[in-house]
Design a protein that fits this description.
CATH architecture of the largest domain: Alpha-Beta Complex
Largest sheet: 7 strands, mixed
Distance between the termini: 21 Å
Cofactor: Ca(2+)
Keywords: Acyltransferase, Calcium, Metal-binding, Transferase
Family: Belongs to the transglutaminase superfamily. Transglutaminase family.
Shape: elongated
Structural class: mainly beta
GO molecular function, one term: protein-glutamine gamma-glutamyltransferase activity
EC number: 2.3.2.13
CATH superfamily of the largest domain: Transglutaminase-like
Number of domains: 4
């Protein structure tokens, strides 16, 4: 349980932040009080009547933000807030009612303020001096005017306070502070002048407006889809995203710059440096928090952080990516989650992965600093890069998972995806690290009896085996590997690492080293590992192998090693030198099930050698439990029951089961714990739970934007 912090003990911070857009809104320190002077020396009056009486003076009676007109046009009607939400670079309208009809001699302006010291953005009317934001009178009827205002395409993103100021014979008459006229201004991917402009409408619908999605895990051969509720339109999420920027004291003036915004965001989603949103945990002990596998979306995480000011426990890469995606889409930046299978972690920046093995074939974990994750999730954002050659604009990699520091903070990107593909690793930001994640060579090393490091084998195809994201407007995976790397052997030059230590020797060819059935492992079933040996020699040869079976974390780190088996393959002298010999190594379910814990990844490492030499190669695959089936009828304005059924299809009982369910704007994250579930008897179904939550009807209840069922997770 995380204790709720007081206002003076929010994380490691205290006090009121002068750069705050939200905190400043409740206590406006700008000139505006009666008779207070502006920087230019002009006196301001809050609704102070002209000495000649109200009949001859002009004053403001009401300001209507016209949410019903503006928000559909700005595609922001899904935000669950009572305030106006608009996108920069696009006109919005306000209806201002005055005390009398406005004449051509009347002069007034609309002022928009954010933070404590940023310049006022204003739209002027009836004066020759033009404000920073263009304004026009759209319609006039009696004593009210419909005014059109267009924020600049590079306007600061955040929450603005609004005033109407009338130029009188005595000075400036400004309206009093009215929180109801506050408005949020977001990035605008529909505006070609905005730095986050996206060129087609389907992409805008998916990468900005879709509030649910899928994150892919497992392996390229066995894609596992985890539904994720981004929930960027849920009540409180927009304020939470702005609070994240405020709490980090990000300067207000930088919040209109998309590059600075996403780079800062990648550091703020993790708690490594600045008490950000999420605490990373890659162990098997999640006491004091929530296991990463139990999160079904970003909403609870962001709301908990905004309400307590303390980092939320716990997250792993897909949780960081999911929450960061919510942050980006909420502010209007096109974003998507990318899953990279066999993702390398280059610890020393030499653009290669060095895996060291002992003479007995086991991994030398003490001296191996690089690693290969079964998969890793990051984000892509779509934006212009004025700091790079124009062709390198478009999709950019950003990563909130804390792995390595960049300019002193745990963050990564933005880095151009095209630059990564073309090997242009000299561009900002963090391109070498990302290039190594998708396109580095794997060097298998060993030490001889004299302690010398020998390069046994170089694998050029293991890393970055496949990159996937959710398809536009469809619940299917979309492979984007070709946007990150050229096919192997196409002759395109890319950066290479320095020559590996020692000579690379030639060994008999291991034709196949894979799981059977190919790429499929069903949890609770025995696993077959197939090894096929092929030699170009026309003489008989014998290859010996030591196959080690282990449970690993998805980051490639060893959790439990449970089996080692020696095998021997003899290829007789035959005329067909391409003929292969095959051996199958069997692993029983009962051997690995008791070692799994929170992990569902099995790693098989083989050490192969002839009389004179050895060769190491590594393969991994994963099995996973199927997600529970969810059924229910979505009905706006009516109470609704959601039935969640889980059937134990294994031959053994399950213990300590937690079910979690969440629906965007319909249902907050709910969990229920069960101690025991019997195995499924032949021909019978066992329902674990049913009709366990009710969504109350209300006028604010809205179905998810894509019409999908709530996501559930076990």
């Amino acid at each position: 349980m995380i204790d709720r912090a007081t206002d003076c003990q929010r994380g490691a911070r205290s006090g009121v932040y002068p750069a705050s857009g939200l905190l400043q809104a409740s206590s406006d320190k700008r000139p505006g009080s009666k008779f207070e002077k502006t920087e230019s020396g002009i006196q301001l009056f809050d609704d102070d009547p002209d000495p000649r009486g109200w009949r001859e003076s002009l004053r403001v009676v009401e300001v209507n933000t016209c949410r019903d007109i503006n928000m559909p046009k700005h595609r922001t009607q899904a935000y669950d807030t009572e305030y106006l939400v608009i996108r920069r670079g696009q006109e919005f309208v306000l209806r201002v009612t005055f005390s009398r009809p406005v004449t051509p001699r009347d002069k007034f302006k609309l002022e928009f303020l954010i933070g404590a010291s940023e310049p006022v953005s204003e739209a002027t009317f009836g004066t020759r001096r033009r404000g920073r934001w263009p304004g026009r009178i759209v319609e006039s009827q009696g004593s009210w005017l419909l005014l059109g205002i267009t924020p600049q395409a590079d306007t600061i993103v955040g929450k603005f306070r609004m005033y109407v100021t009338i130029v009188t014979t005595r000075g400036l008459q400004r309206t009093k502070r009215d929180p109801d006229t506050d408005c949020y201004i977001l990035f605008n991917c529909w505006n070609s002048e905005d730095s986050v402009y996206y060129p087609d409408d389907e992409g805008r619908q998916e990468y900005v407006l879709s509030d649910v999605g899928a994150i892919y895990m497992g392996s390229k051969e066995t894609l596992l889809s985890r539904d994720w509720v981004f929930g960027q339109f849920d009540r409180g999420i927009l304020d939470a995203c702005i609070y994240i920027l405020d709490a980090s004291r990000m300067p207000i003036r930088n919040r209109g710059d998309a590059i600075k915004m996403v780079r800062k965001g990648s550091a703020l989603i993790n708690s490594q440096d600045e008490d950000g949103v999420l605490v990373g945990n890659w162990s098997e002990n999640f006491s004091g928090g929530t296991a990463p596998t139990l999160w079904t979306g970003s909403v609870n995480i962001l709301l908990q952080y905004a309400n307590t000011g303390s980092p939320v426990r716990y997250g792993q890469c897909w949780v960081f990516a999911g929450v960061f995606n919510t942050f980006l889409r909420c502010l209007g930046i096109p974003a998507r989650v990318i899953s990279n299978f066999n993702s390398a972690h280059d610890n020393n920046g030499n653009l290669k992965i060095e895996l060291i093995f002992k003479s007995d074939g086991s991994a030398d974990e003490r001296n191996t600093h690089d690693s290969i994750w079964n998969y890793h999730c990051w984000n892509e954002v779509y934006m212009k890069r004025p700091d790079l050659p124009p062709r390198l604009s478009g999709w950019q990699v950003v990563d909130a998972t804390p792995q390595e520091t960049s300019d002193g903070l745990y963050r990564c990107g933005p880095a151009s995806v095209l630059a990564i593909k073309e090997g242009q690793v000299g561009h900002s930001y963090d391109a070498p690290f990302i290039f190594a994640e998708v396109n580095s060579d794997v060097h298998y090393l060993t030490r001889d009896k004299y302690g010398n490091v020998i390069s046994v084998y170089v694998d050029k195809t293991l890393v970055g085996r496949g990159l996937f994201t959710k398809h536009i407007l469809a619940d299917t995976p979309d492979e984007v590997t070709s946007t990150y790397k050229h096919p192997e052997g196409d002759g395109v030059a890319v950066p290479s690492a320095a020559t590996s230590p020692g000579p690379t020797q030639t060994y008999p060819r291991i034709k196949a080293f894979h799981l059977c059935p190919e790429g499929q492992v069903e949890l609770g079933k025995d696993v077959d590992l197939v090894v096929e040996f092929q030699s170009k020699s026309d003489t008989a040869q014998t290859v010996k192998a030591l196959v080690t079976c282990a449970v690993i974390f998805y980051t490639g780190v060893l959790s439990n090693r449970f089996k080692s088996e020696a095998v021997e393959i003899t290829k007789a002298q035959v005329d067909d030198s391409l003929a292969a010999e095959r051996v199958v190594v069997k692993t029983r379910a009962q051997d690995y099930l008791k070692k799994l814990g929170f992990q569902r990844f099995l790693c098989f490492t083989g050490r192969f050698w002839t009389r004179r030499s050895g060769r190491a190669k590594r393969e991994a695959d994963a099995g996973a439990l199927a997600a529970p089936q969810v059924s229910g009828i979505q009905a706006v304005g009516q109470d609704m029951f959601v039935n969640v059924s889980f059937v134990n299809t294994f031959t053994f009982p399950l213990h300590n089961i937690t079910l979690a369910i969440e629906g965007p704007r319909t249902m907050t994250n709910r969990k229920r714990f069960y101690k025991y579930a019997r195995p499924l008897p032949s021909g019978r179904a066992c329902v674990l739970t049913r009709a366990w939550v009710c969504v109350s009807a209300s006028s604010n209840l809205k179905p998810p934007s894509t019409g999908r069922n709530p996501s559930s997770r076990k």
